[in-house]
UniProtKB/TrEMBL annotation:
Organism lineage: Bacteria, Bacillati, Actinomycetota, Actinomycetes, Micromonosporales
Protein name (database record): Uncharacterized protein
Lineage: superkingdom: Bacteria
Length: 93
């Protein structure tokens, strides 16, 4: 086993998480935990700016004002972030 810098998720991995929220494939809690864990693991690693931005959007995706309140970020906003993520990926490619 080689010990070195942690490997950041790919752009495809990130896109899958945005899509999973929108189609119900994963809960917001699952995606939040995945993104937060990735950000903590990658804190000192070199990470693509677009991936780092997306992880920041996905981290906290399960936040609410209160236990019976809707999510702070609705599906329309998540779709907007997915669209922006795809645009950022095209701009860098």
């Amino acid at each position: 086993m080689t010990i070195g810098q942690p490997t950041p998720p790919s752009r495809a991995d990130v896109e899958v998480r945005f899509t999973a929220i929108l189609n119900g494939g994963q809960s917001r809690d699952e995606v939040d935990r995945w993104a937060t864990r990735a950000m903590q693991t990658l804190e000192y690693a070199e990470v693509d700016e677009t991936i780092w931005w997306a992880l920041g959007m996905l981290s906290g995706i399960d936040l609410r004002d209160g236990p019976d309140e809707p999510y702070l970020h609705d599906d329309e906003q998540v779709l907007g972030w997915l669209t922006e993520f795809r645009e950022r990926c095209r701009a860098i490619s």
